[in-house]
Amino acid sequence: MRKCCLILWAVWIIQFAMAIDSPKQEIRGVWLTTIFGLDWPHKPAITEEAREVQKRDLCNILDKLQKAHFNMVFFQVRMRGDVNYKSKVEPVSNITSGKYEEMPGYDPLAFAIEECHKRGMECHAWFITFPVGSAKSVKTQGNWSVVKRHPNLCKLYNGEWFLNPGLSETSDYILSLVKEVVNNYDIDGVHFDWIRYPGSANKFPDRILYKKSGTKLSLADWRRENINKIVYRIYDWVKSVKPYVVVSSAPLGKYSRIPSVPNAGWTGYETVYQDAENWIRAGKQDMVVPMMYYLHNNFFPFVDNWVENSNGRLIVPGLGAYRMANGEGNWTLNDITDQIDYSRYYGGAGCAFFRCSNVVDNIKGLYDELANNYYKYPALLPPLKWLDNSAPKAPEEILVERINGALKLSWKKPKEEKQTLTYTVYYSKSDSLDYALSKNILVTNTRDTTLYFPLISDTEQEFTFSVSASTRFHIESKPSRETYYYYSKYIK
Q1: Which of 210, 219, 327, 466 has its CA 20 to 30 A from that of 418?
Q2: Running DSSP on this structure, what letter comes out for residue 272?
Q3: Does domain 2-374 have CATH number 3.40.50.2300?
Q4: What's the pLDDT tens digit per position in 397-435?
Q5: DSSP assignment of 399-426, as one string?
Q6: What is the pTM of this model?
């Protein structure tokens, strides 16, 4: 009890100190859930008007995230054996068009990527890995269902159908889905949820397959190795094609029973045969976003455990914003902000929130607290140095033009650079710039080379501007030469 109180006291102090200056580099993510239309879409698009409403609704969500300086969206592209993109492997979900295998008049994934990039946010394709639906949903999908098309790959367990991780053909099947997305879309990452055995996994019906395998491993280790092989294979293939695409997963928040919490209850390693620390040690993950939907001693020690075993990869605690709802736990706002503070202080690379609606709907003031305090200023994405540590050339200095009530800022991409770059614009209302402070970031992760800076007042003001370029590995160049601009209502 004394140790718990000390931890909470330390967190309170951190909250007071850290709320003032937010980190310059930090992941700020949300899981945008499409299954059942939980976050989006709210209605299927069965008419042209409905289609435009559907697209506008997504843009409104992304606008709110942009305003609060979020920089990463995990967009759910695979739900339960159905998808939200053009696929030759699985049926398009009925959630967007009202009918399976029918597009809603546009490509939801392509649209989400484009709109995220417009707003300086990355879009990561979020896959539900092994579950393929309840008996009812499989029946609704009919002949399109993976259970109908590939019955040899599927197992019925507790009324739900699952791909069988013990079959090599399952690995082929999952990889075929990944290949479609990575090859055909300008995605920033692939993200895997439910990459584990189901609950009460010890009863999963695969013992015959285990005996046939001839392995000397125990049943538990064999199951872990089945998933390990799939994770390794996906990672290696993605890096061979587009090395900048971030490969990540959302394992259970409690990896294993640790000495400080010996009675941890439901854990990834022991309960569902999910050896996520193995993936990190082997360098087969770029980022891990553990689902840490717990409080106090079920949260803080496990953050430490993930960070201590990170192998230099990004650890981004997933926070249970949904637990703030009355029917889900009735957490307080401070329960969430304490977790942000702790994660920042103890080595987390940022945080992600489940679900998106719980954030943008401002449950218990969460959105306001993030927009006005914790995420008041933009943040760069942390560098992926283990993939590529080469910095691009700096852009040319910013050209400033006065146009009506705004300053038009423009710059040029370095001539030597052929790769896709994003830009960070720094500014200050003085004749000098401190590049270490997040409050001096005007915008980041933009692909444009033009920016309009509104002038709020006609009073005389001085500004200093500079711009840097970043690769898709988030490696930042040196800043450009600084541009000093003195604004006066009257041209002198």
Answers
A1: 466
A2: S
A3: no
A4: 999 999 988 999 999 998 889 999 999 999 999 999 999
A5: EEEEETTEEEEE----TT--S--EEEEE
A6: 0.95
